[in-house]
Structure to design on (296 residues):
């Protein structure tokens, strides 16, 4: 029976995924010479080169590409054995998690608490950013898992739908009453606080009011929490996700505006690229799915 060092197989898969020895070393919390040594020893055991190394690039050889699925199966089997033993505390390391601001402002805290209960030795390294930036970071393997809204211009290997968040129009509770029925021109006359320029909701708002013949006074922000506070302070109307404004409405700080159009619902998904998928990533996605706010 052939004798392989688990770390050698792990290094092989990580270098293949990241295409870079330095990044693989960072991911596995070791040094680049150690990664190079592990790959060299594995190639010596197998009697074949796994990678072609040129200046600045690392590419799988034909043999490396053929063996990669088997290496992934080895890592998957080890994870399955640990999981079957019922010892989630044996999983350690870092989960690099990226979330959109809506998640950070609503159900992130209960998620982190439940995840820590499930995997106490796995630390979470958190990034909060625009969904487009999270998509790029996931594709470049700088993040392991994202909770973000679509549309996605780069596909992920795995995706679990979380749910949708509709939009609502709101205004500070103490503001004067608006006309009834409310028209696009009535709204366009007010500052409208909303998502960052170039995002899907911003573009839909811009197109809606332009189509109605009354370009709106859109006030974009990359920080939706700032829009929420500005709206509560009476500095403009706001078109925001329902999940974010539910508490201020219940507390009497905001009131809903009855207007017959909103941007499309934000559709959220948990997304990841790892293969094999560590059990803690799939568990994290399942926890998120259970916590996501209802649609209405």
């Amino acid at each position: 029976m052939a004798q392989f060092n688990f770390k050698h197989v792990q290094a092989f898969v990580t270098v293949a995924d990241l295409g870079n020895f330095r990044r693989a070393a960072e991911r596995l919390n070791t040094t680049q010479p150690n990664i190079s040594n592990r790959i060299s020893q594995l190639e010596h055991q197998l009697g074949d080169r796994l990678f072609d190394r040129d200046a600045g690039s690392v590419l799988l050889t034909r043999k490396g590409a053929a063996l990669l699925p088997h290496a992934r199966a080895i890592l998957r089997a080890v994870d399955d054995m640990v999981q079957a033993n019922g010892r989630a505390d044996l999983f350690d390391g870092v989960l690099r998690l990226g979330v959109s601001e809506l998640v950070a402002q609503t159900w992130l805290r209960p998620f982190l608490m439940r995840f820590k209960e499930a995997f106490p030795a796995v630390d979470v390294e958190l990034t909060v950013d625009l969904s487009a930036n999270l998509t790029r970071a996931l594709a470049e393997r700088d993040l392991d898992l994202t909770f973000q809204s679509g549309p996605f211009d780069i596909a992920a290997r795995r995706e679990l739908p979380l749910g949708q968040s509709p939009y609502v129009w709101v205004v500070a509770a103490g503001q004067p009453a608006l006309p009834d029925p409310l028209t696009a021109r009535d709204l366009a006359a007010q500052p409208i606080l909303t998502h960052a320029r170039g995002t899907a909701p911003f573009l839909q708002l811009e197109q809606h009011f332009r189509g109605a013949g009354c370009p709106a006074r859109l006030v974009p922000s990359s920080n939706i929490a700032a829009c929420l506070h500005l709206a509560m302070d009476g500095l403009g109307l706001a078109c925001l996700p329902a999940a974010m404004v539910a508490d201020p409405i219940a507390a009497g700080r905001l009131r809903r505006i009855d207007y017959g159009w909103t941007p499309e619902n934000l559709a959220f998904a948990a997304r990841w690229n790892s293969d094999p998928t560590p059990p803690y990533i799939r568990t994290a996605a399942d926890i998120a799915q259970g916590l996501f706010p209802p649609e209405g």
Observations:
- The mean pLDDT is 88.
